[in-house]
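Hi U.,

Before I forget, here's the chain from the pilot set. I'm dumping it here mostly so it's searchable later in email.
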Amino acid sequence: MEIMGKKTIGEYVAKDFRTAAVFSKHKIDFCCKGNRTLEEVCQKKGLDNKLIQNEIISVLETKNDTTTDFNSWDLDLLIDYIEKKHHRYIEEKTPSILQFLEKLCKVHGERHPELFDINVLFNIGAGALAQHMKKEELILFPYVKKLCQAIKENSSIEQPHFGTIENPIAMMMDEHENEGERYSKISQLTNNYTPPEDACNTYKVAFLMLQEFEQDLHKHIHLENNILFPKAKEIEKQFSIL
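Structure:
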């Protein structure tokens, strides 16, 4: 039990994504701040460490044949999945959510002024995520794929203009944390995505879309912060860079 408390949140979720439900239940950030140990988080938030460990054990001991083991994937395959699944999701869902929020502000903004703050936060996040994904797709991800290819071919690669992969990864993780904080505010403003009593169907659908968007973002960031980035840094150390 003591050893469990020393593992990071990200390590648990990387091993078995089903444990993310345990952390979400206790309002523990497993993606943007997944580098903290369970013991550290419990002390800071005043949570029962043994209780959470028991819940994690219960999840891990339950037979499961459906959860995808992303931790075993080659990094180039994981990158393709992130781009086609999560980047594409953001690109497809963002315009619809923007339209819904704009409509809510016009129709319900007078009675629910928090909608204006939610709208502003989502708009800022949409722009930031678009830029963030382009940096990954044009700079970081291609370099990781070059690393993977070099390992397979037992060859060297030229040093990238950013020096070492530590630099763009640090930037991406900072931006992930910014998004995590932004959606934490949105969650608070929406009362954890609970529509008010006078909410119309558009209101309910908009909140549901926001909630699903945040959930997808959490998994997206988890795959990068807790699996892709640490492994990419280890791969870079395995061979010489010209």
